[in-house]
């Protein structure tokens, strides 16, 4: 949820009742705010675009970890940075500051997303279990990028691999399409017949 001005880091000085303040607390200088953090508007636009184009972010029901009959996958997987699904004990860990969430399993594979969050003051190596559904994931959004969007296919996370998750950051991944198989070449006899 965004309020007017959030895309320019409007703080209201920490006042959560600024609607009653007709002064600098609630006023917004759009031009000056854009100068302070020029890429933040692009960051918010990228988030809004992801929300629009990702069915996983337009759910009409709550996630509950149930297995979906159409895919055989759970509607959500909660992941620990050690490379396994979270347990009850993980949820009760007071100092747990890093978590993963994989969702979007109801429909097409290209709609599957994985979100990694690290609220800890230190970076974490997030491991993805070797038996995790989905062989490879492409990073598409990162809070460490000035405009949010990641425009390179180099950053991928494969099942069994690890990802360096910086402190106080989030990274969003989309399931990578399976590699294309090379087209089979017709036998020589067939090729010679089709030439002429």
3D architecture notes:
The chain has a domain at 63-175: Golgi alpha-mannosidase II (Immunoglobulin-like, Sandwich), CATH 2.60.40. The protein is 17% helix and 22% strand. The protein has four helices and nine strands; from the N terminus they run ααββαβββββββα. The model is unreliable at 189-196 (pLDDT under 50). The chain starts with 29 loop residues before the first helix and ends with a helix. A hairpin with a 3-residue loop joins strand 1 and strand 2 (84-85). The radius of gyration is 22 Å and the shape is globular. The chain is α+β, with helices and mostly antiparallel strands and 196 residues long. The protein has a seven-stranded antiparallel sheet with strand order 2-1-3-4-9-6-7, with no helix packed on it. A two-stranded antiparallel ribbon has the order 5-8.
Please state the overall shape, judged from the principal axes of the Cα atoms: globular
Overall radius of gyration? 22 Å
Let me know the largest β-sheet: 7 strands, antiparallel
Percent range for β-strand residues: 15-25%
Helical amount: 10-25%
CATH architectural designation of the domain at 63-175: Sandwich
Strand order of the largest sheet: 2-1-3-4-9-6-7
Order of helices and strands: HHEEHEEEEEEEH
Strand tally: 9
Q: Report the CATH topology name of the domain at 63-175.
A: Immunoglobulin-like
- Poorly predicted spans: 189-196
User: What's the CATH class of the domain at 63-175, please?
Assistant: Mainly Beta
Average pLDDT over all residues: 83
Class from helix and strand fractions: alpha+beta
Oligomer: single chain
CATH superfamily of the domain at 63-175: Golgi alpha-mannosidase II
Number of helices: 4
Distance between the termini: 65 Å
């Amino acid at each position: 949820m965004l309020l007017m001005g959030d895309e320019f880091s409007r703080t209201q000085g920490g006042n959560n009742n600024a609607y009653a303040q007709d002064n600098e607390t609630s006023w917004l200088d759009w031009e000056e705010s854009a100068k302070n953090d020029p890429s933040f508007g692009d960051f918010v636009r990228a988030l809004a675009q992801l929300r629009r184009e990702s069915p996983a972010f337009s759910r009409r029901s709550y996630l509950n970890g149930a297995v979906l009959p159409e895919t055989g996958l759970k509607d959500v997987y909660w992941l620990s940075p050690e490379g396994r699904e979270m347990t009850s004990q993980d949820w009760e860990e007071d100092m747990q500051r890093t978590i993963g969430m994989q969702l979007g399993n109801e429909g097409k594979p290209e709609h599957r997303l994985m979100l990694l969050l690290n609220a800890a003051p230190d970076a974490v190596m997030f491991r993805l279990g070797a038996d995790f559904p989905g062989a490879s994931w492409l990073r598409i959004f990162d809070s460490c990028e000035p405009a949010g969007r990641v425009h390179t296919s180099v950053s991928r996370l494969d099942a069994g691999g690890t990802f360096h998750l910086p402190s106080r950051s989030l990274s969003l991944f989309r399931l990578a399409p399976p590699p294309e198989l090379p087209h089979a070449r017709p036998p020589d006899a067939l090729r010679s017949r089709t030439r002429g």
